Amino acid sequence: MQTSRTRARPARLAAAVLLALAAPAWAQKDDPDYDRLRGSLNQLVGERTLGAQAPAEIALAEQALANLAEFGGKRKLHDHYVFLAERRIDIAWAVAQAVVQERRIQALDREHDQILIAASRRDAEQARLELERQRIQSLAQQEEADRLRAEADEAREASAQTSKQAETAKKQAAQARKLADAQAREAELARKEAELLAASGVKPPPGAGKPVPAAPAAKSVAPIALGEGAFAPGQAALKPAGHAQVTRIAAAATGKSVRIEAYANDGGSAKANQALSQQRAQAIRDALVAAGVPAKRISAVGAGAKAGTARGATASFSEH
User: Fold this and answer.
1) Which of 26, 74, 122, 174 is most enclosed, with most CB atoms within 10 A?
2) pLDDT score at 58
3) SS3 for 277?
4) Which residues are within 8 A (CB) of 69 and not within 5 positions of it... i.e. 6 or more apart?
5) For position 124, what pLDDT does the model report?
6) For the chain, where are the alpha helices, taking DSSP H only?
7) In sequence order, what are the beta bridge partners of 118?
8) What is the largest CA-CA distance in the chain?
């Protein structure tokens, strides 16, 4: 909404123009001060950027020039009106330049604000991208942690099962040894009793002196095979499935000798397969010893690559 001062500017500027047109009629001839001041004001009005910026001040400067033209002929008043006109023109120049500078400052402020807004948007986008990157990285780390935890749980479960089976095999082997020791002591006592009766001349009772019947021969045990799941390709370490089979072998080896024959058909050279098969046979032997089978009753042989086999081994049993 325009103010009264804004609406008055066109009228003042028109009055200033009329005064400028009429002033030459009032100006005294050959007044260098008037001509100098008139040229300065005309230069301001003619400026493309400054001329329209201070209409009120230009109008007051025109009035001051008109007063100089009208009353400047009186010598006493001439210098006074020259001073007033100079100040009015200086003020008009200063106001016009101030308005232009103010507009330039406003434009620079707007440009500065736009730069700050663009920088803020750029920083916000970078922060969003960084947050998204960290979120994806956190999800990946969580998935990896879950996978490792699941593998650890599976390994603990397999280890616990293997330990339980090994403990069972040890108990069975200990029980078999106790039974064999008891039978040996019984036979020894019977022998000593017969010797004492013979030395004393006492006729032994019927059936005395007869050898104690030996324990029935142990039944033969079928070989136990460790399939391809016992070892990983190119490796000699037993997998959980292999440990489970070793437990079966240890239980069946009570009072018997065990022969381990391992194979390696892993695509390498014959020499490499031979070495790998021997390492696998040794790994099974070590596991049997840990399960309680005496080491002197175990033989381990690496058979290298064998037709129809890949990774695995066979355990065969015999009386020792």
Assistant:
1) 26
2) 92
3) helix
4) 23, 24, 26, 27, 28, 31, 34
5) 94
6) 4-26, 32-46, 55-71, 75-200, 240-252, 270-290
7) none
8) 186
Determine the Cα–Cα distance for residues 8 and 15; give it in Å rounded to an integer: 11
| Contact between 204 and 198 (Cβ < 8 Å) | yes
Total length of the chain: 320
The answer to pTM > 0.70 is: no
pLDDT by residue (tens digit) across 218-269?
A: 467 788 888 878 888 888 888 888 898 899 999 888 888 999 998 887 777 8
| Nearest CA-CA partner of 228 in 296, 140, 312, 126 | 312
Per-residue DSSP letters for 177-245?
HHHHHHHHHHHHHHHHHHHHHHHHTPPPPTTTTSPPPPPPPPPP---EEE-GGGB-TT--SBPHHHHHH
d(CA 199, CA 34): 172
Spatial strand order in the sheet of 311-319: 224-226, 311-319, 256-264, 298-302
CA dist 152 and 210 (Å) reads 61
- pLDDT, one tens digit per residue, over 14-31 is 444 444 444 444 444 578
- Residue 184 tokens, joined: 């040996």
Other CB atoms within a 10 A radius of the CB of residue 91 amount to 16
- Exposed e or buried b for every residue in 170-195, given b needs 16+ CB within 10 A? bebbeebeeeeeeeeeeeeeeeeeee
